[in-house]
Amino acid sequence: xxxxxxxxxxxxxxxxxxxxxxxxxxxxxxxxxxxxxxxxxxxxxxxxxxxxxxxxxxxxxxxxxxxxxxxxxxxxxxxxxxxxxxxxxxxxxxxxxxxxxxxxxxxxxxxxxxxxxxxxxxxxxxxxxxxxxxxxxxxxxxxxxxxxxxxxxxxxxxxxxxxxxxxxxxxxxxxxxxxxxxxxxxxxxxxxxxxxxxxxxxxxxxxxxxxxxx
Length: 214
Hints:
- With 214 residues, the chain is α+β, with helices and mostly antiparallel strands.
- 24% of the residues lie in helices and 41% in strands.
- The protein has three helices and eight strands, in the order ααβαβββββββ.
- Strands 1-2-3-4-5-6-7-8 form an eight-stranded antiparallel barrel.
- A hairpin with a 2-residue loop joins strand 6 (162-173) and strand 7 (176-183).
- Mean pLDDT is 78; it is low at 1-19, 26-42 and 49-59.
């Protein structure tokens, strides 16, 4: 009875922690969107001048930009600890899946983004996730950063949803983007470390955007 009660309490604490993490992601996304719109608001002095112009156009504020939407196509994985993944049956390295990536705040310095998706993970289970992240721009093509993600899969954390952090590197290669992500080994959450590889395809050119590089 004690063990069952203890397990129930731990389960409740875990779900409460996951819900708190999800709330953090949702609130951060909600706050970041108006911030992105505010960042595009013209200087007051410039606004006064524009108000006197005959060709002034009303401000539209924040709006969905199809040029900032990508389709993520997963993917491959590599596990450095080959012996352990074989013993734990976590050696599936072909991880097909799909996701959506949206850059809701893009500047010369970096980009803030949100992602949602699902893929067939290393334990041959479907992993679902929602993430919020930021990457710094280095040069014309490289972006380095990371994300906080709420995840659920029977492979991780004994099948209980959890929130984790991971680094992400992106290289823009013309019509597609190459991405590499690292999932560190964390006790009770992820038993083996893994590198993940996937591509992102800009959707703007197919749904009415300009398809220009951003």
